[in-house]
Amino acid sequence: ATPTALMAGSGRGAQLGILIRGPQVLERTSRIDTVVLDKTGTITTGVMTLADVVAAPGESGDQVLRWAASVESMSEHPIARAIARAGTERLGRLADVVGFENVAGLGVRGTVDGVDVLAGRATWASERGLAAVPEVTRAIDEAEASGATAIVVGWDGAVRGALVVADEVKPSSAAAVADLRRLGLTPVLLTGDNEGAARAVADAVGIDRVIAGVLPQDKVDTVRTLQADGSRVAMIGDGVNDAAALAASDLGLAMGTGTDVAIEASDLTLMSGDLRAAGDAIRLARATLRTIR
Ligand code: ADP
Ligand code: MG
User: Fold this and answer.
1) Which fold, 49-166?
2) DSSP character for 94?
3) Is 156 exposed, middle or buried (0-12, 13-18, 19+ CB in 10 A)?
4) Is 3 left (phi over 0), alpha (psi -120 to 50) or beta?
5) How are strands ordered across the β-sheet holding 18-20?
6) Is the shortest distance between the CB of 37 and ligand 1 below 6 Å?
7) Interface predicted TM-score (ipTM) over 0.90
8) What is the mean pLDDT of the chain?
9) What are phi and psi of 136, to 5 degrees?
10) Minimum CA distance residue for ligand 1 atom 22
11) Burial status of residue 281 (CB atoms within 10 A of its CB: 0-12, 13-18, 19 or more)
12) Between the CA atoms of 278, 280, 286 and 292, what dihedral angle is there, to the nearest 10 degrees?
């Protein structure tokens, strides 16, 4: 009867829009006690829009946007898409880029109109020899405190401006987190984004524990640390940068709206991209396992 019940469970999952990779997955699903959630694209829509253009004293906001948008047009990152789209809408055709480089979790750079332009995290810009500008740093701090994400843009040895982007919490995310809590699970928000943006989203959906500013390769270590502390960890994510953590967790759940890499690294796929399916999966697994015992 055991395999039959598991088969039935998988079938029921498919009806709920939950794709289950193999019958043994339900067993692991039923034993999870901690749920690590990625922010961008998992709790939020992942569709960012450009909210503000900041120019350093003596610089033009259009120039900052044009060059940053040109470099970002080479990247698929949600931040990059927002900037490239806004640049095209406001300024028309973007410039060609040579020598493009994408550093996961940090930003992008490339040569535009003969100038080496960088767009990304402020700490990375500084490491790459771009001097910070107090006015821009202050604008970034304000944007991040209000829950947005700001990236710096720089060339020729100095920061020349910043771009502020933001996306929205999905309408069902708060209910989904509340459901996970009702099931006795501890939610944890894990993101590469800044602390301010992470806190704003966590507060909006009811998550207490926030781990922010984590590089893609360090997301795995976060999962392993939780496991070493005795937690049975489910990870929910959508991005290329979540794949390793999805594979390392006791149970990986991918958003069906996410990247193929995340889906391939996962045990379960929530087809609709509605986070509430995570609670459904846990409930289904527990019910299925009760039937067997
Ligand atoms: P998340 O965990 O929220 O999906 P990422 O790890 O992809 O975030 O990115 C973390 C941070 O790295 C971003 O908040 C941004 O500061 C920077 N970053 C990543 N990709 C880019 C990009 N294409 N352009 C500018 N900044 C980027
Ligand atoms: Mg994401």
Assistant:
1) Calcium-transporting ATPase, cytoplasmic domain N (3.40.1110)
2) P
3) exposed
4) alpha
5) 18-20, 268-270, 251-255, 233-237, 34-38, 186-190, 209-211
6) no
7) yes
8) 94
9) -75, -45
10) 107
11) buried
12) -120
| Separation of alpha carbons 275 and 33, rounded Å | 17
Give the Cα separation of 272 and 46 in Å (integer): 14
Residue 186, both tokens: 């501890």
Alpha-carbon span 89 to 214, nearest angstrom = 32
Domain boundaries, the chain: 2-45+169-292, 49-166
DSSP H helices in 47-121? 61-72, 78-91
Residue 43: closest CA among 214, 273, 272, 242: 273
Which among 90, 94, 96 is positioned nearest to 61, based on CA atoms? 90
**Using the 8-state DSSP alphabet, how is residue 131 labeled?**
B
> Does residue 120 contact residue 152 with C-beta atoms inside 8 Å?
yes
Q: Is the pLDDT of residue 293 over 80?
A: no
User: Which CATH number applies to 2-45+169-292?
Assistant: 3.40.50.1000
Which of 159, 193, 238 has most ligand 1 atoms within 8 Å of CB, for mutation?
A: 193
Interatomic CA distance for residues 250 and 61, integer angstroms: 47
For 147-173, what is each residue's pLDDT tens digit? 899 999 999 999 999 999 999 999 999
Residue 206, phi-psi category: left (phi > 0), alpha (psi -120 to 50), beta (remainder): left
Measured from the CB, is residue 279 less than 6 Å from ligand 1?
Answer: no
Q: Which structure tokens are listed for 31? A: 């034993």
Nearest Cα to 166, choosing from 28, 39, 15, 35? 39
